[in-house]
Amino acid sequence: MTTIKEIALKANYSNTTVSRVLNNDQTLSVSTEARNKILQVARELGYKTLQERKKEQKLSNSAPGKVGILLCHSVEEELNDAYFLSIRHGIENECEKRGLNSTEILRIKSFKEEQMSKDIEHLIVVGRISEEFLNPYKPQLKTIVYINHSVDDSLYDSIAIDFEKATKQALDHLLSLGYRRIGFVGGQEREHLPNGHVDFEDGRKTTFKQVLHEQGLFDPDAFYTGEFTMSDGYELMRKAIQKGDLPEAFFVASDAMAIGAIRALNEQNYRVPEDVAIVSFNDIESAQYTSPPLTTVRVRTEEMGKLGVKLMLDRLEGRDIPVKVTVPTELVVRESCGSKQKEKQNKHLA
C-alpha cells in the first residue's frame, strides 16, 4: 500500500504537507499548484485516503449478496425493441465496473419457474412491475430501484423520463414544419401484477391527444394503437393506408414501430418523408441506419441503467431519502421528418 512518505518523496514536499493536503485540511496554506501536484502523485501511486478506504469497506460489508435484475420483457421482445435491452446493458456494464459481478437476470414471464434466489439482496426493476408483485420478497431485499417506472416515490429510488415533455418536443417540431394532419401509431403500456396485468396510460398517447386537441387538430380516425413491436407498427400503418386519406405526418411511439410503419408505406409506394413524414421515439442504434434515417426523441437508455446501479450503491452508503431521477431527452433531427425538404422548398421560394 502506498504511504504518505512515498508520495512526499516523489512530489518533493514534506510528509506533513502531503498528509494535510490528502486529508483536505482547510487550515493549510498551500498553493494550488502544490496541492494539485500532491494529488496527482497520489493518484499515480494509487493512494487512497482513510475516508475512501472506509467508504470501500462499508460498501464491501453492506453489499455481499447478489444484484437481481428483474425485467418485464422476454429475450425475443428485447431483441425486437432495443430500448429495454440497452437499459439492461447499462446495468450490467455499471455492475461490472463497480466490481459487482454477482448478478442474476429474472424475467417476469418465466418468474414462477425461476423464483428469486435467497442470496439476492438488491433488486433493480426494469419496466412496469407493481409493488404488490414484490411483496413476498421484500424481507430479503436491502435495496429496490425502479427504472422506467415509479410505484411509490416516498419509498423507492426510481429513474424515469418525462414522456410529456419529450412528446411535446416531437409534435412542436412537426407543427413548426407546417404539418397539420398528424396521425399517431403507438403501443399499450401495462403494469404487471402477481396474477396478470392492468393497462397503464402511456404518457406519449395522452400528450399527443392533449397537444393536438389544444391546436384543434386531433383526428380520432388517425389514431392507432397496438403493441410496441415492428410487426404491429407495420400492421397499424397498413390499416391507416387501407382506410385512405392518409395523414401527412405521423408521430410513432417507438423506433421499432416506426421501422415497421415505414416498411408498410414503402410497400404501397408512399415515400418518406415526401408523402408521409415520420417522427419516432427512443433513438435505438438502428434508427440512424433506416431508409430514410429516423428523426426521433433520444432517450439515454444505457445511462438510465447505469444510474440505477449508482442509486443502489448510494443507498448502501447511507442515504435514507428516496430519490427520483428524471433523465433528459432530446430530439434528434434526421431525414424522416422532412425538415430538409422543407428547407429546400423555402430556399427555392426565396
UniProtKB/TrEMBL annotation:
Domain HTH lacI-type per the UniProt entry, residue ranges: 2-48
CDD domains membership: HTH_LacI (cd01392), PBP1_GalR (cd01544)
Pfam families associated with the record: LacI (PF00356), Peripla_BP_3 (PF13377)
Keyword DNA-binding (UniProt): yes
Entry annotated with the keyword Ribosomal protein: no
Alphabetized UniProt keyword annotations: DNA-binding, Transcription, Transcription regulation
Record-level Gene Ontology MF annotations: DNA binding
Protein name: LacI family DNA-binding transcriptional regulator
Organism in which the protein naturally occurs: Halobacillus salinarum
